[in-house]
């Protein structure tokens, strides 16, 4: 996996903006989207610390290729800040890349890219061992 694929979900545009700053291949969650290759997910947190329904439904169909997750949120929600990353991480046993507020800062983007690189390197090693 040399060229990572980012799948993102966004309701009010913050994650759209975060994703637009990333120079990776990207696709937005949509009702019929099927992903047949490894990908990283960026979503947001809704309700009281909940995973958006659109993200949940996407993951029900596509969780087998999920490599890691990041979530947007708002620190006003205290303990529930970006909790959808925690829920998805424990439900599907994947690492959290980062949690960020709204559309994220420059530092959030840098951290996300660092974590993606780490996962890409790890997966390339796994691929070599499997060959
Ligand atoms: C109804 C509602 C519930 C929310 N609940 C949470 C929450 O529990 N935890 C959190 O960190 N952020 C929460 N947020 C903030 C959103 O996660 C945040 O605004 C995010 O950037 C939205 O992403 P989007 O603009 O890409 O849809 C909530 C926002 C709304 C409108």
Which strand-content bin applies to the residues? 15-25%
The portion of residues assigned to helices is 25-40%
For the sheet with most strands, the description reads:
5 strands, parallel
What is the string of helix and strand elements?
A: EHEEHEHEH
SS field, number of helical segments: 4
Overall structural class, as computed from helix and strand content, comes to alpha/beta
Mean pLDDT comes to 96
- Total number of beta strands: 5
Bound small molecules, deduplicated? flavin mononucleotide
Oligomeric form = single chain
Global Rg: 14 Å
Main-sheet strand order equals 2-1-3-4-5
Low-pLDDT stretches:
none
Measure the end-to-end span. Answer: 14 Å
The gross shape turns out to be: globular
Outline the structure in words.
The chain has 131 residues and is α/β, with parallel strands linked by helices. It has helices at 14-20, 53-62, 83-92, 106-130; strands at residues 5-8, 25-28, 39-44, 66-73, 96-101. Helix 2 links the parallel strand 3 and strand 4 (66-73). The longest helix has 25 residues, at 106-130. The protein is globular. It starts with a strand and ends with a helix. The model has no long low-confidence stretch (mean pLDDT 96). Residues 10-16, 44-49, 72-74, 77, 80-83, 102 line the site of flavin mononucleotide.
Short description:
It contains four helices and five strands; from the N terminus they run βαββαβαβα. With 131 residues, the protein is α/β, with parallel strands linked by helices.
List keywords for this structure.
5-stranded parallel beta sheet, 131 residues, binds flavin mononucleotide, alpha/beta
